[in-house]
Design a protein that fits this description.
By secondary structure, the protein is mainly alpha-helical. The protein contains 2 helices and no strands.
């Protein structure tokens, strides 16, 4: 296949592409999640509720 002998090299290419796709999907799904602005952090520290 494509001049690649053995299973290791094509498997390495496939795993590299799949891991790249998995990282992109994970990044899109978790975009801006977990970010806590400074105002919210200070409000939580003071024990205030959300307005």
């Amino acid at each position: 296949m494509f001049g690649l002998e053995g299973i290791a090299v094509p498997l390495g290419f496939a795993l590299c592409i799949l891991s790249t796709l998995a990282c992109v999907v994970y990044g899109v799904l978790n975009w801006n999640r977990g970010h806590c602005p400074e105002e919210t952090r200070s409000r939580r520290a003071r024990g205030e509720q959300k307005p």
